[in-house]
Amino acid sequence: MAARPLVILGGGGHSREIVGIVHDINHGAPAFDLVGVLADDYWDETILDALGAPRIGAVADLAGMEVDYVIAIGDGRARRELDRFATDAGREAASLVHPSATIGLRVTYGPGFVAFPGVRVTTGVRFGRHVHLNLNATVSHDCVVDSYATLSPGAALAGRVTVGACSTLGLHAAVVPGATVGADVTVGAGAVVLRDVAAGTTVAGVPARPISATPGPQSPNS
User: Fold this and answer.
1) CA geometry: angle at 84 spanning 83 and 89, to 5°?
2) What are phi and psi of 107, to 5 degrees?
3) Domain boundary residue among 64, 88, 112?
4) What does the pLDDT look like over 82-116, one tens digit per residue?
5) Which CATH number do you get for residue 123?
6) Predicted pLDDT at 212
7) How do residues 35-49 score in pLDDT, each as one tens digit?
8) Environment class of residue 20 by beta-carbon count within 10 Å: exposed (0-12), middle (13-18) or buried (19+)?
9) CA–CA separation, 145 vs 119, rounded Å?
């Protein structure tokens, strides 16, 4: 089967990490032909060039290209806006699972799903569109993680946890069994969620407690 042409949307650090995931996936049998990066804001083009993923244009250029795409932006709300644009343009999202990640039985995920190195998912888990599981994140049995949610490096969900759309769990944050984290929630780094978290809330600490309301949507290019 021919490798699928792929572009990465976003030109920051997250983009460079996803370049590495594509490279590692292709190490055995090439699955993707990485065409380059589309970004309105980018960190350093020389670094992208060195990784074999040059910046080839702006995000809007995706509409005129016959390629699949993956979104390399950490903020879930920004991913949602870019996904809407790409879908309206008729492009399809690719899902990336790093070879070192383990995805268990009866796990389903939507388009644009990305599992970084060291991710562990057990069984009976459902992920929505463009969910990102960063380095060494863990998801236990029967969780539901809605579209555009983000688990930062080392974040952990125990069994039967629900995470709402566009929510973010910070570095090494943890959620106890059966808890629900609503949509547009931010869980601070190292926080431990012991009870349900209402939508639009920011929580931090051990145990996690509300500290503020979630700000409005960020720019899709942030």
Assistant:
1) 95
2) -110, 130
3) 88
4) 999 999 999 999 999 999 999 999 999 999 999 99
5) 2.160.10.10
6) 58
7) 999 999 876 778 888
8) middle
9) 15
